[in-house]
Design a protein that fits this description.
With about 375 residues, the chain is α+β, with helices and mostly antiparallel strands. Helix content is about 40%, strand content about 20%. It contains eleven helices and 13 strands. Helix 2 packs antiparallel against helix 3, helix 5 packs across helix 6 and helix 9 packs parallel to helix 10.
């Protein structure tokens, strides 16, 4: 995953303050516990020389409720001049931390990268659609504002929507057929309008997941109106209807399940792509030293690491990836086949690229 919003951190010079905190506020007790944990962090950061003005800014950020419901977290990076990045996390950090030093502490944030997916939900009926866009820091699509604003609704404009029984005997059969044809034509034209809006939204926004719900017939017509590439991206989620709240139990659970399945599939695909590249001695390297060498030569297209099995020096590797505009992806802790818990898919390879030999594969954390 590309992380252009972190360049404001990597382009600055330290010292940096890094705060990674579980900011869940589901009841008064959790809010009080959050304030107490932050107070301890603030005390340690003060002792390490962090300016009070900056700590006051961070405190206001981490203690302010976010729109994200359920469990979530927050990562804040700052210099002595102020906050550089304030990011709401789709899950609490695996381990809370606060740090002041020459370099930012990136790992607690980047361990959660897999869960930061952008989503577009399209709920259709035969008159049009509701489109709801969610930012990558908020994969809980049932909460938060719609990122499309006024473009969040599409009305097809063709209002002959309901078939009716036309009586009067056989002499009126042609009227019935004609009326039904007009209804079908209205549905198709409305689907065309929704398809155009959907295709435009995907061109204008970087979207990971495209979910489709609503009227079954309207869903089928929309699929027919879309281009092949968009049609293949659609993930059907049953239970949605236009104008209905997204936090209804069964539909919310279906959205959550679809999100988790998408994340798991994307992680499995990435891990398999790396393993296949290693097996055929392709454009990838594994192991901390090999990845560091490839980063130094600007070869890394995507750095991958296994959560909980990161090698020493992972922070330096992460900074190197960001400084060379490489993508970064965290894999689940049970992922196998990543030597020393870190690897890289390469932009190019030459004779000086470290070899993916059996010797390097023997350092796979899962085989130790």
């Amino acid at each position: 995953m590309k992380l252009p919003w972190l360049t404001s951190v990597t382009d600055e010079t330290g010292p940096f303050v890094s705060v990674h905190l579980d900011t869940t506020r589901t009841d008064p007790q959790s809010a009080s516990e959050l304030e107490a944990r932050w107070a301890q962090m603030r005390s340690r950061l003060t002792a390490d020389g962090a300016p009070e003005r900056v700590l006051a800014q961070i405190e206001e950020a981490v203690l302010s409720p976010s729109r994200l419901g359920g469990r979530h977290g927050r990562s804040v990076f700052a210099t002595d001049d102020g906050i550089l990045v304030d990011r709401v996390l789709p899950a609490p950090p695996l381990q809370e931390s606060s740090h002041r030093g020459e370099f930012p502490q990136l790992l607690p944030l980047l361990q959660l990268v897999p869960f930061a997916v952008s989503q577009l939900l399209v709920v259709v009926d035969r008159a049009g659609a509701d489109l709801r866009l969610r930012a990558p820091e908020n994969p809980s699509i049932a909460h938060g504002p719609n990122g499309l604003g006024e473009d969040g609704q599409v009305e097809g404009g063709h209002d002959v929507l309901h078939k009716a029984s036309v009586g009067g005997g056989p002499q009126h059969g042609w009227r019935a057929d004609n009326f039904e044809a007009r209804v079908e034509d209205s549905w198709e034209r409305n689907a065309d309008a929704v398809a155009a809006a959907l295709e435009r939204t995907l061109r204008e926004h970087s979207v990971d997941m495209v979910m489709l719900s609503g009227d079954v017939r309207a869903m089928g017509l929309l699929r027919e109106a879309l281009g092949r590439e968009t049609r293949e991206r659609l993930i059907e989620v049953p239970g949605g209807s236009r104008g209905a709240a997204l936090d209804r139990g069964p539909f919310r659970e279906a959205l959550t399940r679809a999100t988790h399945e998408f994340i798991a599939a994307r992680q499995a695909e990435l891990a398999e792509r790396f393993r296949e590249s290693q097996a055929r001695d392709g454009a990838s390297v594994g192991g901390a030293a090999e990845v560091a060498q490839a980063l130094g030569r600007g070869q890394v297209d995507e750095l991958v690491f296994v959560t909980g099995h990161e090698p020493e020096g992972i922070e330096e590797l992460l900074r190197g990836a960001l400084s060379t505009d490489a993508a970064i992806s965290a894999l689940q802790e049970d992922t196998l086949g990543i030597p020393e818990g870190v690897g890289a898919l390469l932009r190019w390879k030459d004779e000086a690229t470290p070899s993916n030999s059996i010797g390097s594969m023997s350092r796979d954390h899962a085989r130790e």
